[in-house]
Amino acid sequence: MTDTSSLPTTRAFPTARPAGCPFDPAEDYARFRTEESLTRVSCPAGIDAYLLSSYDEVRALLNDPRLSSRAAVSTHVVLDRDLDAPTVPGSILHLDGPAHARLRRMLTPEFTVKRMQALREYVRGLIDERIDAILAKGGPVDLYQEFALPIPSLVICELLGVPYADRDRFQAQSSILVSTDAAPELMAATSQEVQQYIAGLVMTKMAEPADDLLSRLIQRGNESETPLTLEELIVLGLSLLVAGHETTANMIGLSTLALLRNPEQLAALREDPSLAESAVEEMLRYLSIVQFGLLRNATEDIEFGDETIRAGEWLVAALASGNRDESVFPNAEKIDLRRNPTTHLAFGFGAHQCIGQQLARVELQEVFSRLYQRIPTLRLAVPFEEITFKDNALAYGVRGLPVTWDA
Ligand code: HEM
Is residue 127 within 8 Å of residue 371, measured between CB atoms? Predict the structure, then answer.
């Protein structure tokens, strides 16, 4: 048995995408997958970690209860981040074991396939309204700002029960919150405002319950042995907003760009909207927008193959790499909208697997079966080379997507 603390070479955590291929993950992954297991990497946060890059390794890692999620998703790539900061109550992503299971149990009934199907009509109406507004305005428009960002934001408003009168302001604020280039002062002030807003919303729902997620969450908590505290409810509300807004917006923006670059695939989808379900799974796999993977910490010594990972060591599950594993997804570097790779890793795996995945699917499926059909001549309004990407953000995507069409 090898003691992994003595493993030799430490490589830099792979962050850079291949030149000219903004949809492909870093080239190093392919080599790590075939030549190495447990690649030792040094991360921008100032820690060394084991990088797991094959599909099977990623799943095994994410399904192992001896690994803690206490450090936030992907913070290994955030410069000089304190990964040992205490976990905030209600922060579902970072809790482990029974504390995590308690919150997950209370939230799960809100995200059943049945509930999400019921939201589908609302989502479809919203998408049609947005497309009408874009068509009325005339091209070129920034599809990211005018379409990709507002849809998930308004869907979360509906989910949380944000009153209609507050939605425009809430949407403007949350789009600042998830932007990667807002000035730090604006970001801090907006974050404060959104937190206060959610706190007010939770208190309103406590006093006057309605038919929405927050009200039901409060009630479910009250019926349990350990009711949710105000702080937990606020943090849960914020977590849903942050986890569900930019991720879905990035998927809408980036998949549209990738499809515009693959016109024969786009034509197939345009001509047969029933391809949307499979197309969504394929784009989730192919783009793997949680681009730097998921960070975990070993809570005890773990035997991995013929090696031992010591308690306290950091590990990273490289979702983007697992999703390009040729042994599971042949021709993984190609988009094949008919592939239907439902076992992809884009939503993670194991206890923390994305709780909002059915909602994200409904939103993306409705976009995929409406946008390209209603604007069949949709195309970029600038050369492809002028599109800029969120290279350093935890969720990858375009910064803007200027498009136009034949009037
Ligand atoms: C395409 C869009 C989305 C992607 C790619 C995505 C991706 C992910 C991933 C990879 C995780 C696992 C994190 C981990 O294991 O550490 C996760 C967890 C989570 N996601 Fe999503 N997500 C998306 C949309 C949404 C939506 C729409 C919501 C809700 C409105 C949401 C809410 C959450 C929450 C609350 C968690 C934490 C679950 C837990 O810790 O038990 N996500 N997501």
Answer: yes
Q: How far is the CA of 347 from the centre of ligand 1 (A)?
A: 6
Measured in Å, residue 329 CA sits from the centre of ligand 1 at 23
Between helices 263-271 and 357-374, what is the axis angle to 10°?
Answer: 90
pTM beyond 0.85, yes or no: yes
Beta bridge partners of 389: 398
| Residue owning the nearest CA to atom 14 of ligand 1 | 352
DSSP letter for 389, please.
Answer: B
251 lines ligand 1 (CB under 6 A): yes
Query: Does 363 have pLDDT greater than 70?
Result: yes
Distance separating alpha carbons of residues 203 and 210, to the nearest angstrom: 12
Which of 122, 251, 347 maximizes ligand 1 atoms within 8 Å of its Cβ, making it the mutation to test the pocket? Answer: 347
Q: Which amino acid, one-letter code, is at 162? A: V
What does the pLDDT average to over 186-210?
92
Q: Whose CA is nearest to atom 11 of ligand 1?
A: 354
Task: Give Cβ neighbours of residue 10 (< 8 Å, ≥ 6 apart).
Answer: 40, 41, 42, 48
Count CB neighbours of 35 within 10 A.
8
Q: How far apart are CA 17 and CA 15, in angstroms?
A: 7
Residue nearest to atom 35 of ligand 1 (CA): 240
Residue nearest to atom 18 of ligand 1 (CA): 354
Domain 11-404 class?
mainly alpha
> What's the rounded mean pLDDT across residues 289-300?
95
Supply the pLDDT for residue 76.
Answer: 82
User: Do the beta carbons of residue 213 and residue 116 sit within 8 Å?
Assistant: no
Output the pLDDT for position 318: 96
pLDDT at residue 180, as a whole number: 65
The finding on whether 244 has its CB within 6 A of some atom of ligand 1 is yes
